[in-house]
């Protein structure tokens, strides 16, 4: 039995940020030359422009004190980056460096590398840098070695180059962090949904993920272990949001708070980066409530939480959060026609993705559509919102990733729970659905605001997994 004292929620992490949402720390290694060559003045100008661009980006940048020009200096540069606990190493050769250093770096740094090439001087008839040629050399060597990397090419001052570099850094950091990801599963997957269950060994071999399981009895001990004063404080926080009741009342909030606090307790005390819980049929039967309001709150806080024991769904949410795509809505694919998908679930959508207060479809606290117990979020996704519908899953011992872009439109009818209608771009939902079924994609898709398909394609390529 977990004591009341143990069930106390911890303080927030430093700066109130989840570890995956902290700024990425980048080690920027400039590859130099033992002897002068090409246009060294142009190369120096590019270095200054790179440093100026990096200073304006939302990341922590460390530059080793010396350029890497040979094996010794490269090892010293990498050691300096490791001493600073950088998460990503980026390399830039504003004048072509030594390609023989690529195998050394592949040995020293097992995670994805970011190779950035800068443009030639557009003036004059002299070859000024061969930066892209140098990156091409490194890329071919790394690929032959089976070492992952991402490419960036362009002027540091250009917004497109800066966006691409930010994306590359975020992808590399996500892959590195995923190898330390700790996923918690409470109670297993929902009955019959075998494809959503987790294989700890496939997850570890394919992703590096560590899987930990907890029973619903353990979860129940935590739920009932909080002090009444702690619960009352959380109820006050919920009421302060101004959420209205549909067919519930304030009397339902204490248990909703206990379920929320218990899930948060597991994430914090068990150091979980992502979590999923089997909520039906046990939780409403044992506690008289569904945990969906709590899941919606946690998701809005940037936590990767999935329902129904959907392990890869939780990982999908974590990947999106880590890539900077924002809050995640885990949804059923309810129905489709030749250009739209009806997204629906029992009521755990993040409120930040739903219609704003005062508008039709704004979030309200309600009872479940089927088993009429509280507390769920009934809401409609915001209309005219660009979205990416995606899924990350495993089948036949390997991983797949799929994604398509679209926008939300006004649903054709109101549905209890969370409702949304997505009109896809350049994709017939009927064919996509059939293709995914033949590849064993599980029950849920995940939805993020914004268009992110190209980033996800690059993520899959760097991970060496198939993009569908």
Task: List the topology elements.
Elements: E1 24-30, H1 40-55, E2 59-62, H2 71-83, E3 88-92, H3 102-108, E4 113-117, H4 131-145, E5 149-153, H5 159-178, E6 182-186, H6 200-207, E7 210-214, H7 216-223, H8 228-240, E8 244-245, H9 253-269, E9 274-277, H10 282-287, H11 292-300, E10 304-307, H12 311-322, E11 328-336, E12 340-345, E13 364-366, E14 376-380, E15 386-395, E16 398-409, E17 418-424, H13 429-438, E18 444-449, H14 453-463, E19 466-467
Helix pairs in contact: 5-14, 7-9, 8-9, 9-11
Task: Please supply descriptive tags for the structure shown above.
elongated, single chain, 6-stranded antiparallel β-barrel, disordered N terminus, 468 residues, L-fucose Isomerase, Chain A, domain 2, alpha/beta, 2 domains, 5-stranded parallel beta sheet, 19 strands, 35% helix, Rossmann fold
Write up this protein.
The chain has 468 residues and is α/β, with parallel strands linked by helices. The protein contains 14 helices and 19 strands. The strands form three sheets. It has a six-stranded antiparallel β-barrel, surrounded by four helices. A five-stranded parallel beta sheet has the order 2-1-3-4-5, with helices on both faces. A four-stranded parallel beta sheet has the order 7-6-9-10, sandwiched between helices. Helix 8 packs across helix 9 and helix 9 (253-269) packs across helix 11. The model is unreliable at 1-19 (pLDDT under 50).
């Amino acid at each position: 039995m977990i004591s009341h004292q143990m069930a106390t929620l911890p303080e927030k992490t430093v700066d109130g940020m989840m570890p995956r949402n902290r700024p990425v720390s980048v080690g920027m290694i400039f590859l130099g030359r033992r002897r002068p060559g090409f246009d060294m003045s142009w190369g120096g100008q590019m270095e200054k422009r790179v440093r100026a661009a990096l200073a304006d980006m939302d990341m922590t940048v460390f530059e080793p004190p010396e350029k890497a020009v040979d094996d010794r200096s490269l090892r010293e540069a990498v050691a300096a980056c490791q001493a600073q606990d950088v998460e990503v190493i980026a390399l830039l050769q504003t004048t072509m460096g030594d390609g023989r250093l690529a195998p050394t770096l592949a040995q020293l740094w097992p995670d994805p590398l970011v190779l950035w090439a800068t443009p030639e001087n557009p003036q004059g008839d002299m070859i000024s840098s061969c930066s892209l040629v140098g990156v091409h050399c490194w890329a071919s060597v790394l690929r032959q070695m089976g070492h992952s990397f991402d490419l960036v090419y362009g002027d540091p001052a250009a917004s497109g180059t800066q966006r691409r570099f930010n994306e590359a850094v975020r992808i590399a950091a996500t892959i590195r962090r995923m190898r330390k990801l700790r996923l918690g599963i409470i109670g297993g997957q929902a009955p019959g949904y075998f494809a959503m269950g987790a294989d700890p060994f496939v997850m570890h071999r394919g992703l590096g993920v560590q899987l930990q399981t907890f029973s619903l009895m353990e979860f129940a001990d935590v739920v009932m272990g909080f002090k009444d004063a702690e619960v009352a404080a959380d109820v006050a926080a919920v009421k302060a949001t101004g959420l209205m009741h549909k067919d519930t009342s304030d009397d339902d909030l204490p248990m909703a708070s206990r379920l929320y606090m218990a899930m948060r307790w597991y994430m914090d005390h068990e150091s979980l980066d992502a979590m999923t819980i089997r909520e039906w049929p046990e939780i409403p039967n044992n506690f008289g409530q569904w945990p969906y309001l709590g899941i919606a709150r946690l998701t809005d806080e940037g936590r990767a939480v999935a329902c129904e024991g959907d392990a890869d769904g939780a990982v999908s949410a974590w990947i999106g959060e880590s890539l900077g795509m924002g809050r995640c809505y885990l949804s059923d694919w309810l129905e489709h026609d030749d250009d739209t998908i009806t997204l629906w679930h029992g009521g755990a959508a993040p409120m930040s993705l739903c219609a704003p207060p005062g508008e039709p479809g704004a979030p309200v606290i309600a009872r479940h559509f089927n088993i009429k117990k509280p507390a769920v979020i009934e809401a409609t996704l915001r209309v005219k919102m660009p979205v990416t519908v995606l899924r990350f899953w495993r089948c036949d011992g390997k991983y797949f990733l799929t994604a398509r872009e679209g926008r939300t439109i006004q649903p054709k009818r109101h549905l209890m729970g969370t409702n949304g209608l997505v009109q896809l771009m350049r994709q017939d939902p009927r064919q996509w659905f059939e293709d995914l079924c033949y590849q064993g994609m599980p029950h849920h898709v995940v939805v993020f605001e914004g268009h992110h398909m190209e980033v996800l394609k690059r993520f899959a390529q760097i991970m060496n997994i198939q993009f569908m």
